[in-house]
Amino acid sequence: MSQSVAAQRYALALFELAQKNGQTGPVLEDLQELKKAFQDNEQLGHLLESPRLSVTKKKELLTDLFKGANPLILNTLSVLVDRKRINEVVHLVDEFNAYANDAAGVAEAKVYSTRSLTDDESQSISTAFARKVGKQSLRIDNIIDPNLIGGVRLQIGNRIYDSSVSAKLERLKRDLIGS
After folding, report:
1. pTM, full prediction
2. Which of the listed residues 80, 101, 122 is the one where a domain comes to its end?
């Protein structure tokens, strides 16, 4: 989650509008593309923050660049330009994603393993751990980490479940040294 209060407020407003209009899914998809565009092109953010470019030109530029985007997103971008908050776009997307996940009963999870997980393994991890965090399912991001030796390490928010071989060896080492 972002630490930006402004991003949280804009994301909540956009989320409520999208939910009211039944467009949460399409808005989220467009926002992910928007985030990618801003992250891949740092010059775009700098250009939109520049005082040399008028507000009207900034809005025209955004409308041209994202003409296929949902109108709710274009309106939000326009408001961000007006309020000189365009630098909050990436944080806004993260916050919107968090609101959408919360409403759908989904949690983001990072699963560290020594190899790519199969679909069945991902599904069983999602089923087992979703209940532990009070969600219906997990959206898993599988990260390959050969240092684990075996097993998995799961991170959901600020919770970590570590059943990796390297962690078990470390616990055994502490127990032996402590005895």
Report:
1. 0.77
2. 101
